[in-house]
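User: what does the whole thing look like in 3D?
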Amino acid sequence: MKNNKMGNKFAAKERIIAWPRMGRIDIPLKALVLALGAKVVIPPANSNEALEIGVRNSIEGICLPYKLNLANYIMALEKGANTLMMFQAPGSCRLGNYTKMAQKTLNQMGYNFDMVIFDMYKSKMLQTLQAFWHVTHCINPWCYYRGFSLGFNKLFAIDTAEKLLFYTRPRELNKGEAEKCYNKWLEIVDNTNSIRGAKRLKKQIIADFKTIPIDKNKKVPKVYLIGEFFVLLDPYTNQNIEKELGEMGVEVQRQIMFSDWLEHVLKPSLFYHKESHRERSVRYAKEYMKRAIGGECIETIGDTVYAAKHGIDGIIHISPFSCMPEIVAQNILPKVSKNENIPVLSLVLDEQTGKAGYITRIEAFIDLIKRRQMDYLN
Amino acid sequence: MLLMLYTFFENIQIIKEVMKEKFLYKKIGIPKALSYYNNYPFYYGFFNSLGLEVVLSDKTTTKTINDGTKYVVSDTCLPIKVYVGHVINLLDKGCEVIFIPSLQSTDYKINNCSKIRGLPEIIRNVINRPFTMIEPTLDKTEGVGLNDFCIETARLLGVKDRKVIKKAVDKGWEIYNSFMKMTQSGVDYSEALENAIKGKFARKTVDIVKPLSVAIMAHGYNLYDERISLNLIKKLEKMDVKVYASVSKEKSLEALKQLGEVQYWANELELTGTAAYYLLNKKVDGIIALSAFGCGPDSLMVDEISYHCKEHGMPLIHLTIDEHTGEAGFITRIEAFIDMLLRRKRNLIVKKSDSVKSFKANVIDIKKEKVLTGSAK
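Assistant: Here's the predicted 3D structure for the full assembly of 755 residues, as structure tokens:
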């Protein structure tokens, strides 16, 4: 099957691969690509500098994730990469246009590179495998097994650590200990190189987090964090909202986890038995939405209803500026909030978001939640 | 005994008729926004053939926009605000049944913008008034084609007879096709719409040549709504500029292919296709892009076209509109653009005439040479 979406400028051995950053997605992907015997460049984490580069080189109306993606590409190319990988999901939102636009912009800027794009619409596993084959020309099935199992296990380990961090941070007795533990484990996960070691990671992480002294009887308000995929998973873009909330003494729960999503997308439906997050959302959102409209809109609505029915105290909904599916969600949320009796705070992020004003709004919202709890108790 | 049976059957028939009347709504409201501007002839033929009276909302006014703005989040784009305003207008008129389609995708993997896809979703959750919403889905990516769309619409209205539906669809296509033919031949939009609905066919008789011609790339719902576009077409015509607006789907697809682009958005074809077509056949002197502020797909597509315009040396102006757009500033920008086009064209003509002269001189030289060579023989 020939695919014109994959560039052919470089031979497989000359390739130095890079991909845009989103949270800590670089750790599992690095493990996978290294296992297939290719070279890797990891662009620096998203920062103000990256954002500036992205804003300078992209058009005004496009959303924030694209600007950061473009900056990642540019920084990776400057560091010596020559093959850029990116997935796309046609029909979701502007995400489907990202790669094409980035390609054009980078060509105009005079870079010499290959872009390898793979669809995540249907027949995902095949497309993904094909893309990685195209990049590495690795034919050893053992390498694929090793790469994918390393990658997936690392991903699960990171997500477990993150979940535990959300649980521990508001309850810890010595401030900052959970964060330290999390960062330590990220490094260990990154340095693990054997499948057996990677499989053991999850248990070790759970055991280690249990040693952190916490106040188990503390009454902690629980908040769901919902919204757009990229903004949720990238701590720079959402101004590290999870940390801020944790330090305010609020337990954050995030329904969109990268590993869950990837497992649902990649695993053939024959082996995937449990109800996926999306299916659950569709079920819960039925009263408000009858059809999926692209992006994470239906997940947002479904999660809100789910949260209201499972004793969550509040919802914080974050989205990048001018994100189309999330604007629809924003329009629907007030009614959901009223009908299900759950407070919702919608935050819109763009490159000019000031942190102070942002924190003030969150603080006010948390106060509101706490007061509501008091009213309930009285 | 026979008599009893007879009366029994008669009763059943009466009940059936009553049921039919109960399920059929008499009126259906169509808001004069978004898909109205492209598909109204089809909707009109379809609903009329089903035996429904079509009620339209009033023209867009500032009040419509203000009404709509009250209900939705401020980040929502202007066309959606206008749509909500029109729905409210219909409800105020006393129309209880409103047709709000969800056009998800028009071809495999070619989707619409999320807000158009989720139109019934928005309306249902934003307006807290009792009314019936007819909300069929068109989603060719998932295999729900136009036929299913029509059947679903009819089913929601209480019609289940396939033959009646088929007839209604045919009638819809008939009106739609004649409308498209008229607009393609250059008949004014509102005139074409009027004629198509009356079942007449108008043809443009005189093709007036004007000093300048301009192509407008914009969505139908932005361009033909006189309030949103601030009467852009008439303003341009007053300035003695000829306006080209829409081309057929085949032509625009072919033009896009020539430019090396692929269609990604369903409703962006009317924008990129028009621009690409006129860009390639050099019929126009400039392109005006008109888009609503915060429109996701437009921001990308206008950028794409402006990239090609730079390559082909075609001037392009991007006008952004929102509910606060002042008319004065709008006119100034158009006037400046038209002035620039005029000056550019004059310069080009002067250059051309110069080159014609030099060309003639060349011809004479060649003739002389020929003569010389001839004499040498």
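In plain terms: The radius of gyration of chain A is 21 Å. Chain A touches chain B through 38 residues (CB under 8 Å).
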